[in-house]
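Session log. Operator J.P. requested a structure for one protein chain; no other inputs attached. Running the standard single-chain path with token output.
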Amino acid sequence: MFSLMPSQSYRPFRSSIIKKQVMALTGLMMCGFLVVHLAGNLLLFKGPQVFNQYAFLMLTNPVIGALEWLLAGLFIIHALFGIALIVQNRRARPTPYAVRSTLARGSSISFLSMSITGPLLLVFLILHLLDFRFGAEHTVEQGGLVMRDLYRSVVEFYQNPWQVAAYMLAMGIVALHIQHGFWSAFQTFGVNHPRYNGIITFCASAFAVLMLVGFAVIPLYFFLAGSAPT
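Structure written below.
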């Protein structure tokens, strides 16, 4: 008998597509944040005055404050939907197939990569925020306001070789995550054709490398430059 009601097998499939689309959209938006964040971090090379002016703007501008809450919301949604997809995928396939096509194996490897790097990045982000929000306390006057000397705190952080090594490792995980995430976002929205798949793959890899080099050069520079300012 014909029925207009969706089948039980269709519902989780449809739910999975929606989750992937939400993850793709929030992921691309966070890629934009990475570009802005890197641009701000590069102001460290301009010295304490310029970087602390930037930090002062970040702390006092209400628009930026609202955008930070928006970013936090995007990250939470991205993480929750990612966890939901992992759980849904494992429930759907409690045991792996004995034989898989090359495409299926590639998809599984990509999913496994994202399911590992995602939680690792969540741990890194929490530790990163805790350290730079509540780490070493130095003050400086900026715009008539006594505020945290974020420049000194950052540079001091990069004097510890173990912290630099951990940060570099985290940036490698970020690059791996966004390389696949950037590419898969276009696949999720149906941009999948032999004519431009190669271009998308190249752009994803180039973006990941650019973010990796951009974020990694900062701690390396200040670690090799020597002691923090007094």
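Operator note: The beta strands are 139-142, 145-148.
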